[in-house]
Design brief:
Blueprint: E1 12-13, E2 18-19, H1 20-25, H2 32-50, E3 61-65, E4 67-68, E5 85-95, E6 99-103, E7 114-116, E8 120-122, E9 143-144, E10 148-158, E11 163-171
Parallel strand pairs: 4-9
Antiparallel strand pairs: 1-2, 3-5, 3-8, 5-6, 6-7, 10-11
C-alpha cells in the first residue's frame, strides 16, 4: 500500500535533503501561518477601498441614517429604493476623530445627539431629498415601524398558472 502524504507535511528529511512536500511538488510549502498574513492584507485592501475619510465642518447640513425593523417597509418602498436617511440637520461641533454632535429636533429626543461619522451623510442642499419626520417615532437605535392607515386599492393579476393579489396601502409616515 503506498504511503499517502498530506500537502502540509513540512518536516525535513535528511536522507533526501528536503521536505516531502518539496520532493512531491517541486516547490517549498507555504505554512498556514503565512496564509493568515496574506488573508489579512487582502481583507485590509478590500476594507480600504470602501473606507472614505469624511469630515464635516460646524454648520454643515447632514442627513441621519435610519433603518427599519426587519420585514417592515420604509416609507412605502421596499428594498434598495427605500430612503435610508432623514434630515437635514446641522452639525454643532466635532467630538473626537470620528464623532459629531448634531442638532436634532424634539421628535428625536430618544436619539443621542453625538453620532459616529458612519451614521451621517453630507447634505448637498437639494430640498427634494428632505424626508419629514413628523409622525415617525424613532427608537434609540434609529429604527422605526411603519403602520398602515388604510387600504386604497385592491387588484388581482392573472398569471399563467395563478392569480396574484396586490393591495395599495397608505402608510402612516407618508403624506401622499
Amino acid at each position: 500500500m503506498p504511503l499517502i502524504e498530506f500537502p502540509y507535511n513540512n518536516s525535513y528529511h535528511s536522507s533526501i535533503g528536503m521536505t516531502l512536500f518539496e520532493a512531491l511538488y517541486g516547490r517549498r510549502c507555504k505554512s498556514p501561518i503565512s496564509w493568515f498574513e496574506v488573508a489579512q492584507s487582502r481583507q485590509k485592501s478590500y476594507a480600504d477601498i470602501r473606507c472614505r475619510d469624511i469630515e464635516f465642518q460646524v454648520d454643515d447640513c447632514v442627513f441621519l441614517k435610519v433603518s427599519p425593523m426587519k420585514g417592515v417597509m420604509r416609507f412605502g418602498r421596499k428594498g434598495k429604493l427605500s430612503p435610508r436617511y432623514i434630515g437635514p440637520y446641522k452639525v454643532i461641533r466635532r467630538v473626537g476623530q470620528v464623532a459629531y454632535e448634531v442638532d436634532l429636533p424634539r421628535e428625536l429626543v430618544v436619539v443621542h445627539p453625538i453620532l459616529h461619522v458612519s451614521m451621517l451623510r453630507k447634505c448637498l442642499g437639494d430640498p427634494t431629498q428632505v424626508i419629514p419626520i413628523e409622525g415617525m417615532e424613532l427608537s434609540e437605535h434609529l429604527s422605526y415601524e411603519e403602520v398602515p392607515v388604510e387600504i386604497l386599492d385592491r387588484q388581482v393579476r392573472k398569471l399563467r398558472t395563478k392569480d396574484v393579489a396586490s393591495v395599495k396601502v397608505l402608510w402612516r409616515s407618508q403624506n401622499i
